[in-house]
Amino acid sequence: MNPDFDVRSAARNWDVDKTTTATPVELVNDLFASDVLTLEQLKTRLSKPAYKSLQATVERGAQLDASIADTVALAMKTWAMEKGATHYTHWFQPLTGSTAEKHDSFLNPAGDGVAIMSFSGKELIQAEPDASSFPSGGLRATFEARGYTAWDPSSPAFIIRHTNGATLCIPSVFASWTGEALDLKTPLLRSVEALNKAVTPALKLFGASEGTRVGSSLGAEQEYFLIDEEYYYRRTDLVMSGRTLFGAQPPRGQELEDHYFGAIPDRVLSFMTDAEMQLYALGIPVKTRHNEVAPGQFEIAPIFEDSNIAADHQQLIMQVLRTTARKYGLVALLHEKPFAGINGSGKHCNWSMSTNKGENLLDPGDTPHENMQFLFFCSAVIKAVDEHQDLLRACVASASNDHRLGANEAPPAILSIFLGSELTDIFDRLVSGQGGAGKSAGLMGLGSSVLPEIPVHAGDRNRTSPFAFTGNKFEFRAVGSSQSISFPITVLNTIVADAVVALTAELEAALEGSDLDAAVSQVVRGTYQKYQRIIFNGDGYSSAWHEEAEKQRGLLNLRTTLDAIEHLNSEKNAQLFAKFGILNGRELDARQEIMYDIYFKTVNIEGETTEYVAQTQILPAALSYLAELGQAGSGRAAQGVSQEVGGVADELYDALQKLREQNAALGGDEVHEKAHHMRDAVLPAMADVRNAADRLERLVAGKFWPMPIYRQMLFVK
User: For the GS beta-grasp domain, which residue ranges apply (predicted)?
Assistant: First the structure.
């Protein structure tokens, strides 16, 4: 392979598609949600009683009236066909973490060479995919195939377009014939309802009116890498595992700090704009795009939405990024750590609670020290995070996220909360009995008369915290970039619901002898004192914090996925999920089993790929170079280089034999035994192979090296 040719050809591969025209700015408003069947759209297509019934289900959580299904199905089919759709699918989210779909045509033969386009209420409400072909964690055996998808009316149907047509997608849940949830959406919907039931009684104590409903809102910041498609397909490790299993550090990485918020390359910006237009049509309110810290790394972020819809939209964002990148000769890498030695990618989840009347329960307002409702719910979050550190860590656990968490780029595996100086000061004053305002905001001059004074927040931000308060929400930063956000949101909703129920009982008891402000102060003070250990506003990357967190504060440090998922179905967590009807014991055990299985299979694929690439590509390249060096004469340079390359090649060969043994061993018959073998034996053996291979990359002549290197993949755009 000629690396110079690769660089030039990759840089030249892309050109603007002359058949594609930009969407005029004045039409962007019309484009938004144009491929979404909103309630407003249905209002003009349904009878008034049918619309009111569906509206009650969507907006107030009322039981779906099955009698309107045929009417809704007809309206949905008519709208979809107007949009060019010929097929429909129940679009669901199995326990793989991605989405699934089976397309059925609207066309039905009517006899005598005639066909009609039809779609019934029964077809809208329910479909029957093969449940045995998806992960079930033991809930279903291979011969037990029956499963059901069921329409989720709270998330609107939408159109997915492709080159030759379009498909109507109906967001759905997925359950086994025995009734257990086999998906990520069902527990999320259950947790949303649990949060509503937990929070509304507390709100009534603060004077909320009847009819107030509460849900969680979510905005997820998606980080990703882009590399040239030519490079991607020349990297067996990227194709097989999603990350580079080999690669020496280039002379330049991210140390110049010039990529973050830098000018976006034209090719990338064209891709971003195309993706955004598609997302706008799907009703996804993407707001922000920018270069991230690492070279070749970028971010896209929507604004807040209802958490169930946000979870659906997040899956669509990942899908659109992947498919659109290919149009521009690029590949979008969503793996948490596709390249060693530079920042990995996360998916910061900005979570809050809000009412159906638009009130954000985590908005402190201008005088947070006087906002007793805010302090009450903020205290509930503090309690929830402290009591359920294990569950929060487990819900973001994966083999890929292990490469990111704890590095100097991402939050540590230790859960803590950053409140900021203003809020911390307010809570400290409450505990000490002082009360009153904390540190106040102000204005900052910039030293020039032509520049305005700008408002300064009362507290700084902390990018090293895994769970940070950021003004009117909490930002859960430990979620991985390739991960579905459904389970992390489910966990957040559930643990906060549990904390609110407990604090509401305390508040009701305190109200028997005092007024509301005094009672809330008492509850908040006691909660903060009890759970203050979880508050940390310092450097989460420092080794001093790790030691303090574990030894002095008694916080959990679950460093790896296997450490974390061991806690998933503990008695405490099983009781929590059962209490709120989120997951029963079998459903929870199944999820743990699936997490073990996915971890095992992920690392097993990486181990086998490492062995294959080292044996068939890297070692032969080193030997070919050695053969050429053997013809270079007996000079000191030739002999010295030959000796060095030969020595490292021998190290690679020896490490490869050990990896081959560990790959073959598997570690046992049970999936958790196999998973532990992958972590404890295969990953270290892979690291030894990589160490030798990466050293060879720096020694072997470029014309012999069999794959694109970091210098090319990260910087050619």
Answer: 86-179
